[in-house]
Amino acid sequence: MYLAEVAEGTPRVLKQYMKIFDSPSAHEPDYTLKLQSAPVTPTKYETHPDIQFFRLVKTKHHYAYHKSKLALSATEENIDHMNSRLSGFEPFNREQLLQRLRSFNALNWHIPSGKNTGVQLNELLCAVNGWTCQSIARNNNVKNHLSCSKCGNELILRFNAEEEQPEYAPFHFDLEDIQAVNLNLKAQYAQQVQALGHQSSCPWTKVLTPINTVYYLTPYLASTNESLIKLHTKTLKSLFDNLMIIQEHAGFLSLLCPKPKLISTYADFCRASNLWLLSRYFNNDKENFGTILSKSCPAWLYCISAMGWDVYTQEFNSQTVLLMICQSCNQRIFLQKSAGSDDSGSGNQEHPKVLTPCEYTAAIPHASSKFSNEYMDEVTEEDEQDIDPYLGHKQWCCQVSDMAGQPYFDYFMNMVASLEEYIGPNGEYLKDRDESLDMDIDACTKHSKRRASFDLQEELERFRKLRKPYFAD
């Protein structure tokens, strides 16, 4: 059957199109095409049955098409809204855990001393269960005011005052009885913080942040090394920028440095820290800044950074205060109190990070320990001799807990000193060069016991023996 026979019963418009397609010029590409507007149906074809048919189809499905588009956009908005709501519940996010811990300070959080036999009520317990502590403000003058980051429930932990009771009080209680009541209250509040204080549908009642893997990091892992080095370089950069300010307190700050076991390893640790710092923050001018670091950066600054201490300023009732804050437990140590900020320095001088001003006067007395949550008094030379650098942190802080059976500072110093070849072009940690599968390692002190004791050939031989019963040759 020929094409003419097929097209014999077609309308006149389609015949004209068939002639155009059959012509030789229709098969040749037209290189003279220009941008034109959409074709408009001529008036004489308005009554054509095919055009009217497709126009009816378009009209019929026009509303459904736009409705589906609106539904799709609404679904995307709901997904974004759900993601924003889920931001308050990320139990395995370490950064959010540290942010919740930073909301606890001496102004808005105070728990009576004493330990009960059950779960200890502290800032870490509240933070891993999704609680943040509300700041003291004009509309909130209550301490221990907790708020859930997900369901929004609030808790106010109230305790009996342990100070001396006034003479006009109708009843007088012994201090031991008051402490016993507070211990019972702490046990009850610990249960509310863990589950009872949340709404029944709150996800924090089902899943909480695991302390041993998120807060207390697992040693010998690439992710642990990357997190610790990232925090160390960031803190070291801040301390180096404010070296002229904290140099006046070098004698006191050097007491916060644990003494290294090997001086040679400590020198390697300082050199590796400089390489990480230069690659991450001074990559464009390593030579000049490297010379400055080697000549002007004191050794105790690297130790302060490794232990998580960073410098901040905060205004207390028009008085500017210089303080050191631990990045892991939010412990605060006051260094200086002055009448106002000193702007006599050079214009290029970096200033410490500024915290939210406080309308209260910073006059917090000493507690029984050398290190209270926050204190203002200057430490005398006699007291400085008795300071343990690990007591500056809170008892549960990860900076004072052992890692791999050794003190945290020794582990961190050895780890940084042994990872110079893992520095990327821009200061990133090269995970693809992980030594955990490099089995040809001599028993050097800078390598971990786990890597030194692992034998790849022995494990492959054991795998072949286990494979034979299951796979026939």
TrEMBL record:
Cited Pfam families: zf-C3HC (PF07967)
GO CC, one annotated term: nucleus
Keyword Nucleus: yes
GO MF annotation list: zinc ion binding
Residue ranges of domain C3HC-type in the record: 91-242
Record's keyword terms, sorted: Nucleus
Superkingdom of origin: Eukaryota
InterPro entries: NuBaID_N (IPR012935)
Location of this chain's protein in the cell: Nucleus
PANTHER family: NUCLEAR-INTERACTING PARTNER OF ALK, ZINC FINGER C3HC-TYPE PROTEIN 1
Protein name: C3HC-type domain-containing protein
Organism (species): Candidozyma pseudohaemuli
